[in-house]
Design goal:
By secondary structure, this protein is an alpha+beta fold. It is built from 20 helices and 15 strands. A hairpin with a 2-residue loop joins strand 11 and strand 12.
Length: about 850
């Protein structure tokens, strides 16, 4: 029989079931409610993250597009009106605070808020403030803003304060009522990002230096590429359609080097002489003066002022360049003088007699070896400047000779003939008797002048002994005049023998033609034939531009032009491959003969002399002299360097003083050409300058006050222009120079090149923020080709590739004083053999040194811990 459950027990069971169901339902509701809250929180966080990202994007865009200081950021807004604070009062040059509201009005944004409707906060590292006092703002700028204890990597922070926590009262002017924990302690430099807790709910987004500067570098790289293309396609100013030679890593003075295809943005280009550049600058200034003085209307005067502004800007740059060259020359000449004086002090006692020579001659090579580096530096400095110290010294001493001739002729006394003898002897022994040139024409004239000096010395000595002997007196005067004339002929021939084209330019065209001929010989096609024709025509154009009075160079030039025309005609016909090859081979051979003649032109006689002396001394740095006579000859050579070094130093110091200032002076000379040109630009530029005053008068022609102000401003500019021309003329009278390697400031053509070539001569963001330290470019060819040969990520046919190096990565030389591509660039951008890890040991690559044959391949990719190059192509 079944037992029946008690009713109470049955009810208890139902109640338990109902309780369990209710519990399950309650748990489900709690889970449902929790899920909805979590989903809502995720949505709010995502929306807020997007808002913060929008603010971050606007700040980076602001830094990228800044016209004056790319990479700078606005001050925070502490007034609460959406505008960035201004640099005013005691904080001039500094933001009043570096933590505040996001300046949404300044950034052209709507008022951005967090999920509680609170405006976003913004923190800026002081080093990136938008003021000149923050310069240099660039990829390597050290930053002080810290996030989570990490320094030197954070440019700015955007912070969402979110809901107030316990103890925070809003609205408020106190950052601690919005920002949590360490973020609200009033320290503008130290911040944290979390973790979230009941005491911390700030959402923090950082703008890192790397991501900020990567965007800025991309902008600059694109501008630089546009500039290079505008320069090469400006047929009005650059009819040859050439790119400027890059400044390779073989030098650290941003000197463009012929035949180099990869390097930094150059400050100078090889070719021309400082004297030629100065005369051209003077001509431009004088023409602009004529234009202003002859202008009959205010509009014409305005056009003339703009012409003056352009001419004065280039003149100012040139005067500064002349000072830099002169100061470098003084430094190296003094060092050489000191080194060779030390060598003299070591060697002279050893050569006193045979006994001391036998005992101490082994010390001579060490003394020579110690002095040689200073001679190499002096030669480089002379080559960079092109200053012709020998010619200046010859003309100076010849002028003194002329004075001595006139004095002796007017008063034929023993004293005066003695002075004439001394002057002729100085020319014989120190000026003419110590120099060398490979140019046979100039060498012959030096010999002629030296022989005339010998005759003048002897004749003056005889007249000195018998000053009353009319025949001897007349012979002395006549002999001295012969010497004077011989010196004049030598000086004039040096001037007319100077080259207008760097021999390396001609050598490069020969190399390009040879490469094109090799390609055609391997595979005769329309493409290889067209490439050969283009190279031959380019070589012919350059050869035509070679202008000189040198007989040897002119003979070689004529021959090269003739064979080039024959080769061009054969290549244009395109139907006789053997004829094309033979004619082109002959033309290239004649081109190389021309190059050799240009290299041996030897018109800078002191430079040739010092190079010849270096060749003579190098064996003496290894081996002691075999005889006492040989040792004394060696000492004479040492003293020649010592003597010429002192002459070079004095001459270069004079040029430095007239160009800008003395080499030991702190400030610019008030009477220098640089100061006068700077003051001329100041009289033209700005709100009180003559251009602004004249424009104001043009816009209000009936305003007599504006008319008076314009007249006064124009008069000041005219007076300053006259002063500038006067000081430039004085400098031109002093300056003698031949072809130079680093004297010609790079001329940039194109609107995009304005940061590199400012119209007013004032420093632009490119200069003041030192961006040139970070950018490189490689050209496919010197002359802009129809199709380039450079590739990026394995594809393309680009004419030019620009690279922004970015900040130093871990492993790279932090000073970047080591001139290797791996300390600037990464991966194949440094070289095809570059290590994967930045700064890892590597052999010198083809982008190091003069980079005459760099690899054509480049890599572009996202910024990372081991790659931050930014490319434009």
């Amino acid at each position: 029989m079944k037992q029946r459950l008690p009713a109470a027990s049955k009810q208890s069971g139902v109640a338990l079931i109902l309780f369990l169901v209710a519990l399950i339902m309650a748990a489900g509701y709690a889970f449902y409610r929790s899920s909805n809250v979590g989903a809502l929180r995720i949505q709010q966080d995502a929306k807020l993250a997007a808002t913060l990202a929008r603010a971050k994007e606007a700040l980076i865009a602001r830094a990228v597009t800044d016209a004056n200081r790319p990479g700078s950021l606005p001050c925070p807004d502490t007034a609460g009106n959406g505008n960035a604070d201004l640099f005013v009062g005691a904080a001039a040059g500094q933001c009043p605070r570096y933590v505040g509201w996001l300046p949404w009005v300044t950034l052209d944004l709507p008022e951005l808020t967090d999920d509680t409707g609170t405006r976003l906060w913004y923190v800026l590292t002081p080093e990136l403030r938008d003021d000149d006092s923050a310069q240099p703002i660039n990829s390597d700028r050290t930053l002080t803003l810290k996030l989570d204890g990490t320094a030197d990597s954070v440019a700015a922070l955007i912070i969402a304060a979110r809901a107030p926590l316990a103890g925070q009262t809003r609205p408020s002017n106190n950052s601690a009522d919005y920002l949590d924990g360490e973020n609200g302690n009033g320290d503008d430099n130290t911040y944290i990002s979390g973790p979230p807790s009941p005491a911390f709910n700030d959402m923090v987004v950082a703008i890192t230096r790397q991501e900020l500067m990567a965007a800025v570098e991309k902008r600059i790289a694109n501008e630089l590429r546009t500039c290079l293309e505008q320069h090469a396609t400006n047929t009005a100013d650059n009819p040859a359609q050439t790119y400027p030679w890059p400044a390779p890593l073989s030098n650290n003075i941003y000197k463009g080097v012929a035949k180099s295809l990869f390097g930094m943005v150059p400050s100078t280009q090889p070719g021309s002489s400082p004297d030629e550049l100065l005369q051209k600058s003077l001509s431009d200034l004088k023409n602009s003066e004529i234009a202003l003085n002859s202008a009959s209307t205010a509009t014409d005067q305005l056009a003339a002022l703009q012409q003056i502004q352009k001419a004065a800007s280039y003149a100012r740059t040139l005067f500064d360049r002349l000072y830099i060259l002169a100061a470098d020359l003084v430094l190296n000449a003094n060092a050489a003088s000191s080194s060779f004086n030390t060598a003299n002090a070591t060697i002279s006692p050893i050569l006193a007699n045979r006994r001391t020579f036998r005992a101490g001659s082994s010390a001579i090579p060490t003394a020579i070896a110690s002095a040689l580096p200073s001679l190499a530096a002096l030669r480089t400095s002379l080559a960079n400047s092109g200053f012709d110290t020998f010619l200046h010294e010859l003309e100076t001493q010849n002028s003194s000779l002329n004075t001595s001739i006139a004095t002796a002729a007017a008063n034929p006394s023993a004293t005066n003939f003695g002075s004439l003898q001394t002057q002729a002897n100085l020319l014989k022994r120190e000026t003419l008797g110590t120099v060398y040139t490979p140019n046979p024409e100039l060498a012959s004239l030096i010999t002629t002048a030296a022989n005339a000096a010998t005759a003048a010395v002897n004749a003056a000595a005889a007249a000195k002994a018998s000053p009353s002997d009319t025949a001897l007196a007349n012979l002395a005067i006549a002999s001295a005049k012969n010497l004077f004339t011989a010196d004049q002929v030598l000086a004039q021939t040096i001037k007319t023998s100077r080259l207008t084209i760097d021999p390396a330019e001609a050598a490069y065209t020969a190399d390009v033609a040879q490469n094109a001929l090799t390609a055609l010989s391997a595979n005769v096609t329309k493409e290889t034939t067209d490439a050969l024709l283009a190279s031959l025509e380019s070589a012919s154009k350059l050869t035509t531009s070679v202008a000189t009075g040198s007989v040897a160079v002119l003979t070689a030039r004529t021959s090269a032009l003739n064979t080039l025309q024959t080769a061009i005609a054969a290549t244009k016909s395109g139907n006789d491959a053997p004829l094309i090859q033979s004619a082109s081979t002959a033309a290239i051979a004649d081109l190389r003969t021309l190059v050799t003649a240009m290299e041996n032109n030897g018109d800078n006689i002191l430079l040739e002399t010092l190079e010849n002396i270096a060749t003579q001394l190098e064996p003496s740095a290894q081996t002691k002299p075999a005889t006492l006579t040989a040792g004394r000859g060696l000492l004479a050579t040492v003293n020649t360097v010592k003597s010429w070094s002192a002459i070079v130093s004095a001459y270069a110091e004079d040029i430095a003083q007239r160009s800008r200032k003395g080499t030991s002076a702190l400030g610019d000379s008030n009477t220098s050409a640089y100061t006068e040109s700077r003051q001329l630009l100041s009289s033209i530029d700005g709100s009180t300058g003559s251009i602004a005053k004249l424009e104001a008068y043009i816009n209000a022609p009936t305003d007599t006050t504006k008319q008076s102000e314009a007249i006064t401003a124009l008069a000041a500019t005219q007076a300053q222009l006259a002063n500038t021309i006067s000081t430039a003329n004085q400098l031109d009278t002093l300056l003698e120079s031949g072809l130079a390697q680093a004297a010609m400031p790079t001329r940039w053509y194109g609107e995009a090149c304005a940061p590199l070539n400012p119209p007013t001569g004032s420093d632009t963001w490119w200069v003041s923020n030192e961006w040139r330290k970070f950018f490189f470019y490689q050209i496919s060819d010197r002359v802009r080709p129809a199709l380039g040969k450079l590739t990026v990520n394995g594809s393309g046919a680009y004419r030019v590739v620009v690279i922004g190096a970015g900040s130093v990565l871990n492993g790279q030389d932090t000073t970047r004083n080591t001139r290797k591509a791996t300390h600037f660039l990464e991966g194949i951008n440094a070289d095809t053999n570059a290590p994967a890890t930045p700064g890892a040991p590597s052999t010198p690559g083809a982008r190091d040194g003069d980079a005459q044959n760099p690899p054509p391949a480049f890599l572009s990719g996202p910024v990372s811990a081991i790659f931050n190059d930014r490319l434009a192509y």
